[in-house]
Specification:
Blueprint lengths: L9 H13 L4 E6 L6 H11 L4 E7 L1 H8 L8 H9 L6 E5 L5 H7 L3 E5 L15 E5 L7 H9 L1
Parallel strand pairs: 1-2, 1-4, 2-3, 4-5
Length: about 150
């Protein structure tokens, strides 16, 4: 499957998720900025996919990354970040969202499993009320886009 076909609008993602669910598939959702893809990202994506049959990745838009991470971010555009994510075997669909959190996207998709990094307390996980189950992932120490940028900037 071509990677571009995995990148979906919220409307088409909702329909796609309904079709997957009708086929008896377990839907997993995770989200993030995924600015410079690294081993930590690959680990969370593979872990997330292992929790179900299909993995939907909510991707922060360029504007939302800038609000969350500062004026020098993102390094890569949302189109490039979405395409790289969509090319990964573990990822079934990618949907860009404009808000600072994926609350509305999770509300629309209503995943069976919501995966978030272990740096979030369960009560801080946005959209948890729309998921069948919430699973936290233990982050790989020292792996972050911010650390990569700092290292390259030296």
């Amino acid at each position: 499957m071509k990677a571009k076909l995995k990148i979906k609008s919220i409307r088409s993602l909702k329909k796609w998720a309904e079709d997957q669910r009708a086929q008896g598939k377990k839907i997993v959702f995770t989200n993030g900025c995924f600015d410079i893809l690294h081993a930590g990202h690959v680990s969370v994506l593979e872990f997330s996919r292992s929790k179900g049959d299909v993995l939907i990745v909510g991707l922060n838009s360029d504007a939302s990354v800038k609000r969350l991470k500062g004026p020098s971010r993102p390094v890569n555009t949302q189109a490039d970040r979405a395409l790289v994510l969509a090319a990964l075997e573990s990822v079934s669909a990618v949907c860009i969202f404009e808000e600072d959190t994926p609350y509305e996207l999770i509300k629309q998709v209503r995943p069976d499993v919501l995966v978030k990094g272990g740096d979030y307390k369960p009560s801080e996980i946005v959209g948890r009320e729309f998921a069948g189950k919430v699973v936290r992932f233990k982050l790989l120490p020292g792996r972050s886009t911010t650390n990569i940028i700092k290292k390259v900037s030296k």
